[in-house]
Design a protein that fits this description.
Number of helices: 7
Structural class: alpha/beta
Distance between the termini: 28 Å
Order of helices and strands: HEEEHHEHEHEEHEH
Radius of gyration: 16 Å
Low-confidence stretches: 180-186
Strand content: 15-25%
């Protein structure tokens, strides 16, 4: 908070969006969701994609000018999101840990230049990414760790006066949690 107060980080607008996705009956193993079940649920939910796009249009003046990262639960989920966004006229790409280094560099360069509006990632970019131009972060998966949440948020907190970035917009899509979550903290 002191870094924000000192103007060392970009201010941010955080929006928690209830997406009505019911996670309550998914298998819960070792204190977390089973990723394959989350992936199946999210890659079949076109209404959720519609909600995500609708919220982007409500919260951003021009989504076609955003430079965004979307954090996904699986490779399939990242690819699904990229396909759906492309189908709706936004330049999107999916990357994961197995993406070749040159493909990653090219995608990041295009994101920074504005030729690409959004990168959907899985198990990538939680830390070590330095693209100050990122002005939007989409949290599209349950984040069961405060550390991971802060790492993902941090991807967009760098200042970028040269791009005209005035703040970071964070949209956190939250479904109905598993019934074990409330009990785990009691």
């Amino acid at each position: 908070w002191s870094a924000l107060d000192q103007g060392l980080l970009s201010p941010f607008h955080y929006f928690a969006v209830a997406d009505a996705t019911d996670l309550s009956d998914l298998e819960w193993r070792r204190g977390g969701y089973v990723p394959a079940e989350l992936s199946r649920l999210y890659t079949r939910d076109h209404r959720r994609v519609d909600l995500i796009l609708s919220e982007l249009h409500k919260k951003l003046a021009d989504p076609a000018r955003m430079r965004a990262l979307g954090f996904c639960v699986s490779v399939e989920h990242a690819r699904f999101m990229a396909e759906r966004f492309c189908a709706r006229g936004l330049a999107a790409e999916a990357l994961d840990a197995s993406s070749p280094a040159d493909q990653r560099r090219d995608a990041l360069r295009r994101l920074q230049s504005g030729a690409l509006q959004i990168l959907f990632a899985v198990d990538l970019f939680n830390e070590g990414l330095d693209i100050p131009a990122i002005d939007t972060v989409l949290l599209l998966r349950p984040t069961e760790s405060a550390v991971v949440f802060l790492q993902q948020l941090g991807r967009g907190l760098r200042l970028s006066p040269e791009t005209g970035k005035s703040c970071l917009t964070v949209l956190d899509f939250i479904g109905q949690q598993h019934r074990q979550i409330g009990r785990a903290h009691v």
